[in-house]
Amino acid sequence: MALAVKQKEKAWGKVLDAGLDETIKKLTPEKIEQVIKKALEKMGPGRLKTMVETCIHCGLCSEACHTYLSNDRDPTFAPVAKVKQTMWPILKNKGRVSPEFIRRAAEIAYTECNLCKRCSMYCPFGIDMAYIILSVRRICHLLGVTPLYLQDTAHSHAVTMNQMWVKQDDWIDTLQWQEEETRGEIKNPIIPINKEGADIMYSVIGPEPKFQAHLMGQAAVIMNVAGIDWTYPSFDGWDNSDMAMYSGDHEIMGRVKRAHFEAAMKLKVKKIVMGECGHAFRSIYDVGNRWLGLRMPPVPVIHAIQFYYELLREGRIKIKKKFDKPVTLHDPCNVIRGRGLHEMARYVTNALCEDFREMNPNKEYNFCCNAGGGVINCGPPWTKKRVISNRVKAEQMKATGAPIVITPCHNCHSGIEDVIKYYKLGMHTKFFSQIIVEVMEIPEKFKL
Amino acid sequence: MNQIAEWDWDTKEKYIADINEWRKKFPVVRGLVASDDGEKIATVIQTEDNRFTTCVNGDVWEETFERLWSLKFTPDNKFICLTYKDYEWALAVDKEFWEDRFDSAWNLTLSPDGKNIAINVKKEESYGVSLNGNTWENRFVDARDIALSPDGTRTATLIQTKRLKEGDIFGFQEGIWTVAVDGTPWDKTFVNVWGVTFSPDSKHVAVEVRFNLYDYTIAIDGKTWEKVYNCVWEPLFKPDSNDIIAPVKTSDGWTLAINGQPVWDTYVQLWNQRFSPDGRRIAAIVAPEYGRWTIAVDNIPWNNSWSDAVLPPIFSPDSKRVAAVVKESRNPFHMESALHNVEGNNRYSIAVDGTPWPGDFEMVWDPIFSPGSDKVLAKVEKNGKYFIAIDGRIGKHGYEALWNPVFSPDGEKLLIRCVEGGRYYRRVVPIHEI
Fold it and tell me: Domains in chain A, ordered, with CATH?
């Protein structure tokens, strides 16, 4: 049931991005070689070489990749081909590659791979493609070659510790303003700020205060009704996201993660509950923590899927009337394949919705939204390529016949909305929190 | 300490306020803030018409506001808060307002003696600082974080010097951030600045800087260390000196640098360095190996280490002992158990000179040394109640709310600020009765 989208000759054409096109002008093969040699020493060239040489070119990874499938099985989109076009020549030539090569490597690493790790599940050797591509990104970062929008986001993280240039006073204002807004939903809601010793620090990503503050209001409704002892910090560290992880700026990634963990420890909370974001979870339990020397987050971190699962299972929120439109569920890679929350996600979906229709494949075999891994953060120049390169997701979603796609991850949410629009699927995305607020029972004491 | 000596150390118990009554009287009572000497307890209350005011020891401020937050008592018991009314923020000290009004006001900071108050402010679409109501005339595109000098007379903040178009990554990388001290920006700008701090004599300011996307160092009064590093963390001045120490990342790992020169061994991580009161010793959090955390004192790590975290070290008044909050998980390598609460994981305790207390707790606050440096106590949480633990022994009484206890100057008694049965009490208790 292939959707009719012409893709011959790369339908998106040549994409201009000053973050790539202007920056390679400053490079020479000598400089590139010098930077790469130094970088490879740190990365452990043996590990990368072992991965590359272990590959037997069986091609099983190809069928796992949504960009390969969506581009009519164009072999250049196969995961193995992405490595062959980037890390292989880098290792083979000991870093002696041209600026044009780096431009192409950056385009592949930042816009054609979501680091979703689906291919690694199909690789007979379990080669960690995401690690290889992240290493390519690290090299690109060290050479200063990063898509402009992604680099701007990394700059925002560096200055503000959040990804959207949200100023310190704007954050506080948003918390207070959202409490006022929530008074229109329930009686006497509180959005606690800097409540030392609260059970939970709730954390969000930059786009929430910037563009989607209503989601913070909805979280406040859930927290108040469920009787959660929670708080937000008024200071930096409230944003759990970390696009520096994806741009390859490890030092800023670590700084952002340190601020996040230290905010929680300063507030003496027992755990962090993070909103519906996937990559943020990867950054706190896999990549960012490790750069800091932490095996695991120093404070337990619970993703929203797990949090809602616990609230529903324990009866802390009750359902008045289930959501009656048919829904399907997108499994975000970082919290499903990466964390194994798929059964909890289904528990939550079934608890909230009358008519749940699975996508196929699903759970840990889900196809990526093609927005994750920082790809959507590469910005508008790359949108067309991104949506065309995820036709399989469109087909998957369309086959369910459901008008609503639950996407418990911000990047998935925005990326899938783009896919829906491009392929005219007539569907819409929703977060779990939006459905919860719609169907939950409001106890008497909170009724207006 | 002098102020503490003047507190009432004789009255065994003072019943200050019935918090439960407040809860019955007002639709919403928010968090409680106790004064240092325990004589006062304050909160924000919400009125029937969804406005806010304060209640201090039952005294309700008649004036109401649209927003109200950032409550604090000064050491001499003045009550401060930030109020918002008719689209203007104002700082109130004992119900008296600073004359100046702001579009935004935050990062309320007090000098050590509490006599000086500084805040970050936004006014007329530009950002700066107000110290005791005197707002910087120079204001900037953005300002974030505030440092108030130890003598309370000077302020510094991180500022953005130039407005950029959205997505101007090249303009950003030219360096548009620096430090402004008393309203005057340093001449030199950087890609990033973080961790602003004053010297003990209030004359100098230091920050972390990033020159480009890769090179980090420390700048003092706008002048940078000669050496650059892969990364740095916050600088700290040595007491009675202008020497600066900061963690720096070299190709071998993290070490501690003094005035730009690495002087410690390298570690997987090193941060939150502290000087002893006499300035002769340095303690810092270190990870001697991946996933293990401890305290190193003068570059010698404690023999014990912990899986999850160690919090910033605290020196005893005599500079001889060091204590820190430590956190351990029995199964730290198993994702399911480490990330969620299972028995044996996420256990907090206190370690003193490397030796942990025998018990562990659900939460532990910073350790507090007695004036004679011989005892260590901490507020701890167990089974949802708050206790005082001394030298590892948990106290008899569990409280609904508890503020950090304070030792009497002779170290024989404790001031306990607590809520029991919905009532706030100030108690003075001999140590042996805890």
Answer: 18-146 (1.10.1060), 159-313 (no CATH), 327-439 (no CATH)
